[in-house]
Amino acid sequence: QKEVEQDPGPLSVPEGAIVSLNCTYSNSAFQYFMWYRQYSRKGPELLMYTYSSGNKEDGRFTAQVDKSSKYISLFIRDSQPSDSATYLCAPAPGGFKTIFGAGTRLFVKA
Amino acid sequence: GAVVSQHPSRVICKSGTSVKIECRSLDFQATTMFWYRQFPKQSLMLMATSNEGSKATYEQGVEKDKFLINHASLTLSTLTVTSAHPEDSSFYICSAPKMGDSGNTIYFGEGSWLTVV
């Protein structure tokens, strides 16, 4: 079993839609949960960062962590074509050794 | 602006030669840096943890004699792909954690495209 499972997609939605991206993980030691966005041929950039269970909101983005079920979600409201990218979930233990999910390719159509 | 810089951004080398990729933290010191490899349409795979002043820690399956890592200073880690082969062609990315008063953040470089011909 992989440490982090993420559906690679692709996921195609119309502009303005609410997007739901999800990951599951197996390692109970993970405490930090990050979501990265990666545009084609670029390095990943940090979108959201949460610690332990709960929700965190930042503009159009909401990250949710449910440690009891080992489930991580990222919601994008009012999606825009500029949101088209690959989204990687990345849980981490107490240090900074980040493990990445496969990444979900998102296409937002104008 | 970028806080972690990688150089070169693109490199083409001949099979059998070695190529060095640099990762620099621009405005902070990093005792630890991480090197990842990403094949097209795949996720980032952690290759090794670079430790300033000591040996790197390699992930299972990564050949330490092929991927030489040197972390000679608090702002620079280098990855040298030795005796490169076409199957080493990939996107190599480094990251470095920046400690701050409001928390710690991991920053990624822009990546380096390696093509071995």
What is the topological layout?
The complex is a heterodimer of chains A (110) and B (117).
Chain A: E1 4-6, E2 11-14, E3 19-25, E4 32-38, E5 45-51, E6 54-58, E7 61-66, E8 71-76, E9 85-92, E10 104-109
Parallel strand pairs in A: 2-10
Antiparallel strand pairs in A: 1-3, 3-8, 4-5, 4-9, 6-7, 7-8, 9-10
Chain B: E1 4-7, E2 10-13, E3 19-25, E4 32-38, E5 44-51, E6 57-58, E7 67-73, E8 76-81, E9 90-100, E10 103-108, E11 112-116
Parallel strand pairs in B: 2-11
Antiparallel strand pairs in B: 1-3, 3-8, 4-5, 4-9, 5-6, 7-8, 9-10, 9-11
What's the quick description here?
By secondary structure, chain A is an all-beta fold. In chain A, 0% of the residues lie in helices and 54% in strands. A 5-stranded antiparallel sheet of chain A has the order 1-3-8-7-6, with no helix packed on it. Chain A has a 5-stranded mixed sheet with strand order 2-10-9-4-5, with no helix packed on it.
Report what the structure shows.
The complex is a heterodimer of chains A (110) and B (117). Chain A has strands at 4-6, 11-14, 19-25, 32-38, 45-51, 54-58, 61-66, 71-76, 85-92, 104-109. Chain A is built from no helices and ten strands. Chain B has 117 residues and is an all-beta fold. Chain B contains no helices and eleven strands. In chain B, the strands form two sheets. In chain B, strands 2, 4, 5, 6, 9, 10 and 11 form a seven-stranded mixed beta sheet that branches. A four-stranded antiparallel beta sheet of chain B has the order 1-3-8-7, with no helix packed on it. In chain B, a hairpin with a 5-residue loop joins strand 5 (44-51) and strand 6 (57-58). Chain B is globular and about 45 Å long. The chains are: A mainly beta (110), B mainly beta (117). Chain A binds chain B through residues 6, 8, 34, 36, 41-46, 49, 88, 96-103, 105, and chain B through 6, 32, 34, 36, 41-46, 49, 91, 93, 95, 97, 103-111, 113.
